[in-house]
Amino acid sequence: MLFSATLLNLINLFHDFDKSNKFSSKSMTIAFLCTTEFLVIRWFQTKHLPVSNLYESSMFLPWSFSLLYVILEFRNQNGLSGPITAPSAMLTHAFATLGLPEEMQQFTPLVPASQSHWLMMHVTTMLLSYATLLWGSLLAISSPSIYYSDTKDYCVLDSKHNCCSTSSKLNTLSRINVRSFLYPLSSNLKKCQLINRLDRWAYQIISSGFSLLTVGILSGAVWANEAWGSYRSWDPKETWALVTWPIHATYLHTKITNRWMGEGPAAVASAGFFLVWVCFLGVNLLGIGLHNYGWML
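C-alpha cells predicted for Cytochrome c biogenesis protein CcsA:
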C-alpha cells in the first residue's frame, strides 16, 4: 500500500489528477491502519510498547509518517503532504522489513532499565519528533528547490526573503510586450504561493517537532536519573540529540527574528535532517552506547 501511495503521489506531483490524489489518500490511510494493527498485535505479543529494538522503532517511524499525513491531509485536503510522507514511510518500512536481519525482527524481553513507565513517554516522543523534524526539514529544503527550478526569472524575493507577488516586476516591463509574459507570470505567481505555503508549513511542523524533541530529551534525562542515578551519561545518542536540538533552534530563530526564506533556512534544515538520521541510525551503525540495539555494519 505504501508503494502504491508513493507512486500515485509522484504521479499527482507532475500531473494534477484528482483520481490519483483520492486513491493515494486512501492508500496512505489503509497503510496507516495496517501499520497500526501490526503495532497493536506486537504490543499484545511483547506485553510492552513495541519500540524496544531497531526493528520495532523502524516500524514505528513509518507509522508516525502515516499519522502525520492523515492528520494534515484530512485537515487541508490539498495533496501537498503526500509526495514527502509517502516515500518516507515506504523507505523506512522497507528498511525495517527488508534491510534488517530476521533475528533482529524477533521480539525479546525488556532489560531491567527499560521496564519503566518512561518507555512510552520518552521513546514515542522521540520517534514522533524524528518523523516530524524529518518531514519539516524536507519541506524547508523543497521550497528553494522549487524557486530555483524556473521561478526566479519572474518571482522575486522581498527584503525579508519572502517570495512576493510579481506585480512589482510588471512595472519594469512596461515598455515590453507584457502579453507574452502573461502566462508565465500567472504560472509563477501560483508557484510563489506554493513556496510560501511550503515554507509556512515547514516552520510550523519543525516547531512541533522541536517541542517534541525537547520533551523527549527532558523525559530521557529524568528516566536516566531514575535508572542510573545521573541525568546525563554522555551516551552517543544523548550527545547527538543535544547537537540536533540547537540546530533546529537556530532554524526557528532565523524564521522568527528575520523571517528568512530560501537557501539559509534550507541549509540549516538540511543539517538538521542529517543529524536526525544520525540520532536514529548512527548509534546502531557505530554499535556502541546505551542506546545501541546490537547491530553493526
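The mean pLDDT is 76.
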